[in-house]
Specification:
With 300 residues, the chain is an alpha+beta fold. The chain has 2 domains: 65 residues, no CATH class; 208 residues, Fumarylacetoacetase-like, C-terminal domain (Fumarylacetoacetate hydrolase, domain 2). Strands 1, 2, 3, 4, 5, 6, 9, 10, 12 and 15 form a 10-stranded mixed β-sheet that branches. It is globular, with a radius of gyration of 19 Å. The structure holds manganese (II) ion. The site of manganese (II) ion has 7 residues, from loops.
């Protein structure tokens, strides 16, 4: 099943006929604030499965092209993110073509958090802050959507806690300032276009993904090459914090990260999950003197 958040507050199922509105099954109205309809729908998904199926079978659909797609989960409890997390296999590097190769390798450094407010949908694009002299990079990542509350989850049980997957970009201002700040501008965590439920993914350890900028290949990888694999991400994060339904996990990026600029179009494609084409624009808000002194050193 493909689930979407759309038109600022609606949740729906994407079918061959278009989007079927199931906002009422989330238990809150479309104009309810905070926008937690998808979180509630995920939390109560099993209990509501029959009613959702009935709604899909009996209700009218709107064309997907007629709705505005928001971040699938707009108000999660948290966005967990793993740093660069792929072995840079020679095969993966073929066709990268930009000469931009990540200097970063995942290791035993754990995970970090991005601000929930950086989440955006495909309709929002990527809005760069007007910072001079800094590179802002794309990181192509598979997003995991947590399905159940849990703490201290073992590897063997980890997959039971995964609700589904989404395309995710972890955008970042390169530099040595605090990582949370560099990765938390509004629109720096595009997700979508929908959540694909885990039952539709035949093998989550063989998910291929790629990213292009203006059609030029930049990143390409498969989850088979993850250093910290998906069960271990669930185990590690839940060792520290209680995972909640709707939590988003950015699974880390492969080699090939590189800068984006105003006017670019970034496209992420994840096999079996979906794709998003994101125009890059430059906003007027976002500069601050904190960026004036470029500090030495590299950080993820
Ligand atoms: Mn990342």
């Amino acid at each position: 099943m493909k689930l979407v958040s759309y038109d600022r507050g609606h949740v729906g199922v994407v079918t061959d006929r278009g989007v079927v509105d199931i906002t009422d099954l989330s238990g809150i109205a479309a104009d309810f604030w905070p926008p937690v309809g998808m979180v509630r729908l995920i939390a109560e998904f099993e209990a509501n499965r029959a009613r959702i199926a009935e709604a899909v079978a009996s209700r009218q659909a709107k064309p997907l092209s007629s709705v505005r797609l928001d971040a699938p989960v707009r108000w999660p409890n948290k966005v967990i993110a793993f740093p660069a997390n792929y072995s840079a296999h020679i095969d993966e590097m073929k066709g990268v073509g930009t000469g931009v190769i990540s200097k970063f390798k995942a290791s035993g450094q754990g995970f970090f958090l991005k601000a929930n407010s950086s989440l955006s949908g495909v309709a929002d694009g990527i809005v760069l802050p007007p910072i001079a002299g800094r590179e802002i990079h794309h990181e192509c990542e598979l997003g995991i959507i947590v399905g159940r509350r849990g703490r201290g989850i073992g590897r063997a049980q980890a997959k039971d806690y995964i609700f589904g997957f989404t395309c995710l970009l972890d955008m970042v201002v390169r530099g040595a300032e605090e990582r949370v700040m560099r990765k938390s501008y509004d629109t720096f965590c595009p997700t979508g276009p929908w959540i694909v439920t885990a039952d539709e993914i035949a093998d989550m350890e063989r998910i291929s993904m790629s990213l292009t900028v203006n059609g030029e290949p930049r990143q390409s990888a498969s989850t088979r090459d993850l250093i910290v694999d998906i069960p271990e991400m669930i185990a590690m994060s839940s060792a520290v914090m209680t995972l909640e339904p709707g939590d988003v996990i950015a699974t880390g990026t492969p080699a090939g990260v590189g800068p984006v600029k105003e006017g670019d179009v970034v496209e992420i494609v994840i096999d079996g999950v979906g794709s998003m084409k994101l125009p890059v624009t430059r906003g007027r808000v976002g500069d601050h003197s904190v960026w004036d002194t470029a500090k030495a050193g590299l950080a993820v």
